[in-house]
Amino acid sequence: MNAFLQGKAWKFGNDVDTDLIIPARYLNTSDPQELAAHCMEDADPGFAKKVRAGELIVGGKNFGCGSSREHAPLAIKAAGVSCVIAASFARIFYRNAINIGLPILESPEASAAIAEGHTIEVDLATGRITDQTSGQSFQAAPFPSFMQELIRAGGLIEYVRERLTSRQG
Q1: Mind listing the pLDDT tens digit for each residue in 34-83?
Q2: Bridge partners, 8 (sequence order)
Q3: CA 68 from centre of chain
Q4: CA distance 12 to 44
């Protein structure tokens, strides 16, 4: 995971629940690519075909509320979204996103100001969010170093795998 991300913003509103992120009718699989094909389908039909690798989602308050399954952040990550910025996140979504290595940043100011289609740059190490289209900058709380390591590794499982491999080698 690169500490600097840059991409186009896809904007969503408040209370985007996990059923909007990945509809329950597709939860008969945990295959990331199958989930990605239906990412955000009930919020924006066709999103999965429009989004490009490295682009970002900007949500309002309570992003990821609803189900506790990891399918929602997994679908977003597998769709190629590099980061989610929101005014606030549901706690279980926040933790699940970190566990699977999807960077997420809370910034009510960035959430309110960033418009769909704007080019956004994110510095994960500092939490700095820059809207290159409008010229505005915002500060989110940066991840503690151990959480940056989890995200860089690609999630909790990959992080543990790396640590076990390094101890054996």
Answers
A1: 999 999 999 999 999 999 999 999 999 999 999 888 999 999 999 999 99
A2: 119
A3: 16
A4: 9
* Residue type at position 67: S
| Sequence-distant (≥ 6) Cβ neighbours of residue 6 within 8 angstroms | 54, 119, 120, 121, 122, 132
> What is the residue range of 155's domain?
4-167
Residues of the chain with pLDDT under 70: 1-2
| Overall number of domains in the chain | 1
* Residue 44: DSSP 8-state: S
Q: For residue 155, is it left (φ>0), alpha (ψ between -120 and 50) or beta?
A: left
DSSP helix/strand/coil, 38 = coil
Domain of 30, CATH number, reads 3.20.19.10
